[in-house]
Amino acid sequence: MKTRLIIPSDIERVLELGRDAHAESRYAKYPFSSSKCIAILNACLAGRETFCIVVEDKDQIVGFAVGYVVEHFFTTQLFAQDMLVYVTPEHRSRNAGSLLLMAFEDHVHSLFGNIPIMVGITTGVTPEKTGELYEFMGFKRSGSLFIKEN
Q1: Looking at the 3D structure of the chain, how many domains does it have?
Q2: pTM for the whole thing?
Q3: What are phi and psi of 7, to 5 degrees?
Q4: For residue 134, is it left (φ>0), alpha (ψ between -120 and 50) or beta?
Q5: Which of 3, 9, 55, 73 could serve as 103's disulfide partner, Cβ 3.0–4.6 Å?
């Protein structure tokens, strides 16, 4: 498996995986917006602060991570954060997630230096396993996410 930045010809496949991620997650009850996803992916192609990394197995994209870099509310310090990390179910136990995270870190550090990176689990998909992977990769738990839906 290998990782790389998204290229224009990847948009259709990443959009397909985005639909799968949406359907599998707690966000499935909200409408899926192809146009919103395409706008974000185009921003990834056009800029530095928003980016998308894909992981391929035998030249087939099997996962992706979308991230962005911003200043935090309290400081001018830059932080990188994930917007979404998704790997197809059949590739979750085959190092695709760890490869994506390593590529995410490498990309951020190569462009912005050794800034903090924050990743979260908001989809409700295998949160325990995902948390274990994040901790294995050196991330520390910090806070919790709560949601109240009407």
Answers
A1: 1
A2: 0.94
A3: -125, 160
A4: alpha
A5: 3
